[in-house]
Amino acid sequence: MWRSLRNLGAVALLSVVACPARGQDLPSPDIPALIQAQEISFDENLGIVVAKGNVEIAQNDRVLQADSVSYNMRSDVVTASGNVRLVEPSGEIIFAEFAEVTGDLREAFIRDIRILMTDNSRLAGANGQRTEGNFTEVNKGVFSPCELCRDDPTRPPLWQLKAERVIHDQEDQTVRYHDAWLEIYGVPVAYTPYFEHPDPTVQRKTGFLAPTFGRSERLGFTAQTPFFWNISPDRDLTIAPIFTTDESAVFVGTYREAFSNGELEFTGSATVADREDKVGEIDRSVFRGHVEAFGRFDIDDTWRIGFDANRASDDTYLRVYKFSDEGDLTSRLFAEGFRGRNYLSVNNFLYQGLQDGDDDGETPIVSPLIDYNFLSQPLFWDSTFSLDTNLLVLTRTDGRDSNRLSMEGGWRLPFTGPLGDRYEISALLTADGYWVNDNDPNSEEVNPPGDTKDYFTGRVVPRLALNWRYPFVQVNPGFSQIVEPIAQVVLAPDGGNPRKIPDEDSVDFEFDDTNLFSINRFAGTDRVDPGQRVDYGLKWSIMGDDGAYGTAFIGQSYRFEDVDQDDLFPEDSGVEDQLSDVVGRVELRPRKFLDLTYRFRADKDTFSLKRSEIGAKVGPEALNVNATYTFIDAFDSGDEVIDQREELKVRLNSRIGRYWSLFASHRRDIERDEILSWEAGIAYEDECFTVRGAFERSFFNDRDVEQEDAFFVNVSFKHLGGVGGGN
User: Fold this and answer.
1) Quick one: which of 365, 363, 354 has its CA closest to 325?
2) Which of 400-409, 451-460, 629-638 has the lowest average pLDDT?
3) Residue 319, H or E segment
4) From the centroid of its chain, how far is CA 298?
5) Which is the CATH superfamily of the domain at 8-198?
6) Exposure class string for 624-645: b at 16+ Cβ within 10 A, else e
7) Which of 115, 173, 525, 646 has an alpha carbon within 20 to 30 A of 453's alpha carbon?
8) DSSP 281
9) Strand, helix or coil at 393?
C-alpha cells in the first residue's frame, strides 16, 4: 500500500533518490521519485534508510522492485535483496536475489543475474555489473531466445551461447561475447573468441547477412554473402555478390530509401560471362546484367507519380542466375490523380520479351497512354452519367504504329419494379479516331511483308442495353436459397470493326462466365462487340445457417444475325456463331476445410467440354491439399493453332505438431504424359530456430537454361543469422 512520508527517514529516502549525488552526472533533481513500501525506517546515527515489504522505487523511467531495500546516505548505495527486479526504460527486466545499486538506479552490482529482453530472449550469469545506465556485463553468461522445456526447465534449450563474458550495450543495441561456444541441446558445436549480434530492439543494423551456397550445372558451385549497410534511418544498401566456379562473379546490389512522401528501391546486377544466343552459338565473355527498380511519390492529396523499371541484358539471364522466371518484363513511368469520382492517369510502357520467339523490333512502345474517367453524382431517378477518354500512342522500331483517340459517354438508369425485379438501362456512344502508319489493312501481322500504308480512319458506335434480373428468395429451417434468372438485351450496329483499324489490345479473346453479360466482351478498345444479341443465364445460391454455402451459374448468348466480319472472333472462341457455347461455374463449401470450384465452357451442339477448370482445397492446416485441373481444347487463336492442353497441379501441405511442416507439389502435362515440375520439402520453425530443406526438379529448357535438379537447405538462428545451401 502507498504510505505518506510522515517521518524523517521517509523524507530522506525520497530526497536521495530524487536528487543527484555528489560528483555524479545524474538526472535533474526536479524529476520526482515514486516510492511504495509496507514499512519505512530511518537510522539517523548510521545514515541508513530501510524500506521493507513489496518495495518499489521508480525514477526517470526506471523501476526497482525488491522485498527489502536499504539506502546508505554516506556511500550513496542502495542495497536490494529478495526477488529483485530492475525494469529498464526499453522494457528489459533484470532479475536477481541481491543487488547493489546507486541512488539513481544507473550503476549496479548483481549476483545470480538473469535478464529478460524485450522479445523474451534470456541472458543469465553468475554475476553482473550495470554501468552508466547503459552497459550490462555478465560473467559466465548464457544467452538464448529459445523457450525452456515446461516439463523439465533444467534441460538445455534447443541452442544457446555460453561465454566467459557477455556485454550488452543498450545505446549501440549490441550484445558482445568473449570466448563463446554455441551449444545445441547442450552439446558444444562451435567456438569463437569474439562474437556480436544486434539486440532484440534492433530493426536494421549494418553487418553481414546469412550466406547462401548452391550448385547448378550452368554455374558450378555458387556462394553469396550479402552485406547490409544501414546508411541512415531512411536509407540502406545491400551488396550481395554471387561467386561461381564456372563463370565470373556477379555483382548484385539493392538500394532503398524512404521519403516523407514516397519510397524508392533499386536492384541491379552485372557480370561478364558466356551466353548462348538464339541460334545456339556461344558468345564468350559478354556483359550480362539486369535492373529492377520502382518508385512511388505522393505529390499532394490528388496526384501521385511513380515508375517501374525492369530490363535484362538478354532473354535467359534472369533464369540462369535465379533472379526471376518471368517470360516478359514491363517498365512503366506514370502519373495519376484521384479527385471525387474523377480519375486521370498518364502511363508510358516499355516491354521486353524473354521468350525464344520474341522479336524486339516488333515489341510495342507505348508513350503515352492517357486515360480519363468521370462518373457523375446521381442525377434524376438515380441515373448516372460517365465519360471515358483514352489517348494511345503506340510505336515500333520495326512494324506498324497506331495512334488512337477514343471517347465513350454513357448513361445508366437502375430501377426496381413493383414485384422486386431489378432493371438497368445503359446507353453508350463510342467515337474512335486512328492514325496508323506502316500497316496493311488486309493483314493482322504487326510487320507485314508487302506494301504498307499510312492513313486515318475512325468509327462511331452507339449501343443500348437492358439488363433484368429477378431474385426469388426462399427461407427454410436451417438454410436459405435464392434462384435468380438474368437476361440482357444489347442493341448495336453491325460491323464497327473495319479492317483499317489495327488490333493491338483485343487480340486475346476469351468467352466465359465472367464476361457473358459485358456489353463489350473484348478486353480492349480496338475491337467492339457488334450486332444485336440477348444474353441469358440462371444463378442459384444456397446458404446454410452453419456457414455452408454453394452457388451455381449457367448461361448462354444468342446473336440475332451472323457476324459479317471475317476473323473478328477466333475459331472455337465460343461466340463465332449466332448461338454461343454454354458457360458456367459452380462454387461449393459444404463444410469447413472443403472448398470446391468448377468453371466450364461446353459446345452448344454436343455439350462436349471446350474448357474446364476444377479447383479443390481440402483439409485443415494440419493436412491440406490444393489441386487444380485445367483442360483447354485445341483452338485457333487467330495467329496460330493452339494444341489441346490438359494439366494437373497438386500441392500438399502438412503441419506436424507445433513446429514441423511438410510440403510437396507436382505439375503434370496429362496430354503429353510428361512431368513439368515437382518439389518436396520439410521445415522446422520455432521461436528461436528455423530450418528448411527442399528438393525440386524442373524440366524447362531454353538455350542456356537447362532442366535441372535442385536441392537447398537453409538454417537460421534468431539474432545470429543463418546459413543456406543448395545443389
Assistant:
1) 354
2) 629-638
3) helix 317-320
4) 21
5) Lipopolysaccharide (LPS) transport protein A like domain (2.60.450.10)
6) bebebbbbbbebeebeeeeeee
7) 525
8) P
9) strand
Amino acid making up residue 528? V
CA 432 to mean position of chain CA atoms: 39
| Predicted confidence (pLDDT) at residue 30 exceeds the cutoff of 50 | no
Cα 524 to chain center, whole Å? Answer: 28
For residue 33, give the C-alpha cell: 521519485
Rounded CA separation 141/127 (Å): 9
Based on the number of CB atoms within 10 Å of its own CB, is 178 exposed (0-12), middle (13-18) or buried (19 or more)?
middle
Which grid coordinates belong to 267?
536492384
Residues 6+ apart with CB under 8 A from 605: none
Contact 155, 170 (CB under 8 A): no
380: amino acid identity, one letter: F
List the domain boundaries for the chain.
8-198, 204-337
pLDDT value at residue 700? 65
Kindly provide the b/e burial profile for residues 283-311, where b requires at least 16 CB atoms within 10 angstroms of the residue's own CB. Answer: eeeeebbbbbbbbbbeeeeeebbbbbbbe
List the grid coordinates of 388: 471515358
Query: Of 222, 211, 210, 286, which Cα lies nearest the Cα of 708?
Result: 222
Residue 246 and residue 320 in contact, taking contact as beta carbons nearer than 8 Å: no
Residue by residue, DSSP assigns 153-167 as TTS--SEEEEEEEEE
Angle CA(701)–CA(702)–CA(708) in degrees, nearest 5?
A: 35
Band of residue 19 on the pLDDT scale cut at 50, 70, 90: very low
Q: How far apart are CA 719 and CA 121, in angstroms?
A: 10
- pLDDT tens digit string along 602-618? 999 898 999 999 999 99
What Rg do the C-alpha atoms of the chain give, in angstroms? 36
Contact 287, 312 (CB under 8 A): no
Collect all residues with Cβ–Cβ distance below 8 Å to 177 and sequence separation of at least 6: 141, 143, 161, 163, 165, 166, 192, 194, 195, 196
